[in-house]
Amino acid sequence: MCPVIDIPYDEVQGNVLHGYGLEHAVYLLLHATTRVSAQECLRYAHSHVETAVPWESEDKPSCTLNVGLTYTGLERLGLPAIDLAEWPDVFRRPTRERAADLGDVGPSSPEHWERGLGTGQVHLMLFLHTRSEPVLRTKARELRDELDRLGGLEVVACHEAHALIMMREHFGYADGFAQPDIEGVTPRGRRSRAVRGGGVPLADGGWRPLKLGEFLLGYPDEDGNVDRCSLRVNGTFMVYRKLEQDVVAFREALRRAAEVSGLHEEVIAAKVVGRWRDGMPLELLPHRTPDSSLREEVVDQPPNDFRYLPHDRQGYVCPRGAHVRRANPRDALDFDGAVAESGRLSARHRIIRRSMPYGTELRDDAVDDEKRGLLFVCFNADIARQFETVQADWCNDGDSFGLGAEQDYLLATRDPSAPMTIPSKVSPGFLPAVPGLVRTRGSEYLFLPGITALRNLSVAKPG
Length: 463
Ligand code: HEM
What we know:
alpha+beta, five-stranded antiparallel beta sheet, binds protoporphyrin IX containing FE, 2 domains
């Protein structure tokens, strides 16, 4: 039995432990010209911030506001040097300096990023989620008017995002539903918190939830460690990445691969991600009579209760290099049986995703020059151990899975990049990589303070 954890929801920002399920968002990335303007902005945020206190579906607000700070934002607030030195190294460095390590090379390299992003220029981020586009327009205008009134706050970037029909991302897959199961957190809309498949796979076939401290600071993590810095209690780190998607190139690559291999395009699409486009995992539905209508199918809540071992060690069902098997290997990292509790390894590298697409959906067979992609957002307690390991060691490299230099087919940036291996008992297939299907256009690491810390930061005297 897990100890019952009483989470102080009124101390935690919303959208972290539970997704809002609101379909429109705008992110304002701000530069504060003075300490006072940064504090004014935090004071405004503190009086309007949405907390994690659960709401009934009928009380769902039409608009929410949340706030994050970068490391240079903490510096701008004048925190004492001794306190600043306590923040993690990867958070303190401009994300442009992390680019090479994270695979942001070639078409994803910082020279192609939006001006100002990842340079240290951004101090604060205010973001709104709304129910509808008209509400987004009105609230975003009001917010910008308020920032003008406060003064000393320059908009470095403003990004809008909106959910696509059937919760798809631009390549056509249902996205965003496989999330960590966390102790003490009951998923919205459910009475009991047991969600099989989201937590840590146990040797007896069961699952247990992940420790809260993997996501929220100030609580024990999977190793029993607790971050005791008072400013960080009830806070979390947010990774924000603008990822442009080349939908035309992706569709063309699937078409070509289907012609060459004789496999149906939808089978190739499923092997690339590890789930069919409607979200059904290959591990639970290895075979299906695919046709193009699959792209329109909806599964209300795609299942998540599956593992990779012992039945699929070779990846005949779900390739070892498929996106979801890399991003959350579940029980698959047992090093050929050498590690008994293999689920514990993945457990240290989980992230909560709250991404949303930007740009309009591209109709089938259409070609245009519009920019579209994913505003990738994830929350974790330790950016280096969680997000960066998934991105750099698992998605951008194949070593952990016995795949050498093979990269995630969706996220590959190296040119040339090794083809994706699609294992088969008859003869393996090799899918030529198309580096640059997803291109980074900017990245920021932020800290989302708890509510008391937010208030304290907004009134703190310089150190
Ligand atoms: C444009 C870029 C991306 C696309 C199109 C994409 C697409 C998908 C899709 C379709 C799924 C399966 C649906 C779901 O589980 O919700 C998924 C799952 C996931 N993705 Fe991505 N993704 C992208 C970028 C990333 C990045 C950059 C990371 C982290 C470095 C990441 C981490 C994950 C994780 C952790 C899962 C859940 C795996 C599981 O728990 O089984 N994704 N992604």
